[in-house]
Amino acid sequence: MRHFDELLGDLRAKLLQMSGLVELAIRDSVHALEGIEDSNARSVFKREVDINRLELEIDGTVTTLLALEQPVASDLRFITAAAKINNNLERIGDLAVNIAERSQSLLQHPHSGIRTDIPQLAELTESMVKRALEAFVAKDADAARAVLVSDDAIDDLRDSIFNDLIDQMKTNSQSVQACVDLMFAGRSLERIADHATNIAEAVVFMIEGVEVRRHHTQAVSG
Amino acid sequence: MASATHGRESGDAKLASRSSMTDESRSIPAEDAGVRFQISNLDFFYGAKQAVHGLNLKVPTNRITALIGPSGCGKSTFLRTLNRMNETVRNSRYTGDILLDGQDIRKMNVVSLRRRVGMVFQRPNPFPKSIFDNVAYGLRINGFKGRLSEQVERSLKRAALWEEVKDYLQKSAFALSGGQQQRLCIARALAVDPEVLLLDEPCSALDPVTTAKIEELLFQLKDSCTLIIVTHNMQQAARASDFTAFMLDGKLIEYNDTSKLFTTPADPRTEAYITGRFG
């Protein structure tokens, strides 16, 4: 195997490692939001350190590869996609921390009577992230495109959740703090989905050299 | 088409605004640039051996076109066909058409053709004359009637060599460094105001700093000249050209805007060659 191919393999391995950590971070943050225990939130905070460290390592590897190897064609597209995916994964990690922090705040405020579709939003978001990363691993542009069309449903659900929470705040002033925490958590989940969209767009470009940013909604709505 | 005010935006658009940068000079399509050379069904033979097979290509005017490919693929043979330099090789011949601004080059006076289509070779080859006489030589034999010293100065300036040699024009060309000699050869070719400059690996004998100077010079020259460069250095082709043609075994495999060819090559053989996975 050529030395350059080994370097590309190392980059891919680091990205996969980071993907795994981020998926776990999302899972723990959602469990923290749903659950009673604080341990899930603490796991998210701890994992954030590793995610941030990996982000720096991957950025360094990308810079070195670009400077020393002058990659072109599919190698160049992979490396530039890796840089974008890296950035988006790190942001997802930050958002998972935000959700975990909101879950800790929720523990301090009564919220048992609040009804929301946040669990459904969480499930859809986790699925989007998982599918985007699977598309990257499998180099499957069609699977990546399928992720892109999921974003609208997430946005709609986020809006619906916000409206429900606003209604609940209007009728029960005791619930305001908890509802605010849930709104922020919902917003973070929706932003995680946006980052999953970005990852899917990067995967399509990596495989096909086709730019799909800002085009996929046009295709959906004609 | 979805309205931007009603459609939802993709992830990045919602998260942050972003400006995009494009290199407009690289993205002008060949058809908008005009065609300087049109090559149709070119087959070239050295005796019984066929070196170029069925080549079709339109070389855009006032652009830099790079020819890349492995050794022996026919790129230098093709280049030398464009000003009939291959006629100096015994038993060589070609079929097909090569049109320069619509005229068949076989029907042109060869001296006139080579004035219009100049050539710079891999190794600098100044004449054993002074710097001045090297540049003036082509002008003299073409019967130039104007002010010779002005034209020599203009050519040396165009070749970015004037400031370095203006006080030593009577010095022998062999006293110059390799990079200066190569720029002198470019000045010599430019002195007769060619429409096309063919460059066969012009930087392969030069150091990186001099190479960068020559490449910068090529960017400046394309305003007044169409340039075709053969290079083994793919990074040079990527840096310095507007369009790139990849040849293999005497055939043109792919021809495209340089940025497209080096980011998303259409042919797997091009991908294999430019990523170094060839062979």
Structure report:
The complex is a heterodimer of chains A (222) and B (279). Chain A is mainly α. In chain A, 84% of the residues lie in helices and 0% in strands. Chain A starts with a helix and ends with a helix. Residues 217-222 of chain A have low confidence and may be disordered. By secondary structure, chain B is of the alpha/beta class. Helix content of chain B is 34%, strand content 24%. Chain B has a 6-stranded mixed sheet, sandwiched between helices. In chain B, strands 2-1-4-5 form a 4-stranded antiparallel sheet. In chain B, a hairpin with a 2-residue loop joins β1 and β2 (49-60). Chain B is globular and about 55 Å long. Chains A and B meet through α3, α6, α7 and α8 of A and α1, α10 and α12 of B.
Helix/strand layout:
The complex is a heterodimer of chains A (222) and B (279).
Chain A: H1 3-34, H2 39-69, H3 73-107, H4 118-138, H5 141-148, H6 151-171, H7 176-208, H8 216-221
Chain B: H1 11-15, H2 30-33, E1 35-46, E2 49-60, E3 64-68, H3 75-81, E4 92-100, E5 103-104, H4 110-116, E6 117-120, H5 131-141, H6 148-158, H7 162-165, H8 178-190, E7 196-200, H9 208-221, E8 226-230, H10 234-240, E9 243-248, E10 251-257, H11 258-263, H12 268-274
Parallel strand pairs in B: 3-8, 3-9, 6-7, 7-8
Antiparallel strand pairs in B: 1-2, 1-4, 4-5, 9-10
Helix pairs in contact in B: 5-6, 5-8, 6-8
Structural class of chain B: alpha/beta
Radius of gyration of chain B: 21 Å
β content of chain B, as a range? 15-25%
Shape of chain B: globular
Count of the separate structural domains of chain A: 1
Rg calc of chain A? 19 Å
Low confidence ranges of chain B = 1-10, 13-28
Features:
heterodimer, A: 222 residues, mainly alpha, 84% helix, B: alpha/beta, 6-stranded mixed β-sheet, disordered N terminus
